[in-house]
Amino acid sequence: MKYGFRFGGLCLLGLLLCGCFPVALHPHYLERDVVFDPALVGVWSDKDDDTTETTTITRDGEDGYLYRWDRSSTEDSPAATTVCRARLFRLGNHRFLDLAPIPDPSASARPQTFPLIEGHIVLRIFKTSSGPEMVPMNLDWLEKYLADRPGALRHERIREEYFVRGTKHHRDDLILTGSTLQLRGFLRSMGGDPGLFPPPGAETEPSRPSADSPERDRPSSGE
Length: 223
Fold this sequence. Notes:
3-stranded mixed beta sheet; alpha+beta
């Protein structure tokens, strides 16, 4: 069974480094929300003309996962590795995966890649005819939502500088600073919204959230 680890053609590494989705400072779940699904354990490879990307998910402890992504070297870039500790959790009728980048426990000499702000990234798991697929938060939708309701979820913007082939760039990353209870409450109330987590094959830039929805105007709580 193949999972949607490439997120519509973009690898996890690229999403981590480009600020394509928000990073939270705290986990999105409580321990009572955690579940384990052995179907997530496995190895998936994706090969093109000049490089191979391999995703390996192993069991980590009683109910966790270790997520490892490796890319082979090319003429333009060296081999790279991203390692995350992952927890699968359920809120209501929806399942999510919380990813937290960590140092490579194998102590490999291969360079590692991390987001510029280390924290937690959440993905929603959808059931499809070809197997489960994982979808990150729609950053554009969330930014519009928070612009209309800045008190719905605590957040900050941090300007980051980075270099691409020697050229300096900058961006304003969206950092979710709310507590675990607030993040969890937000996912409980909004996690099923197709704007926040577009189903596989759906539009990637849904329209602005409606300001007429009383549920969306209500601040999130943890319970």
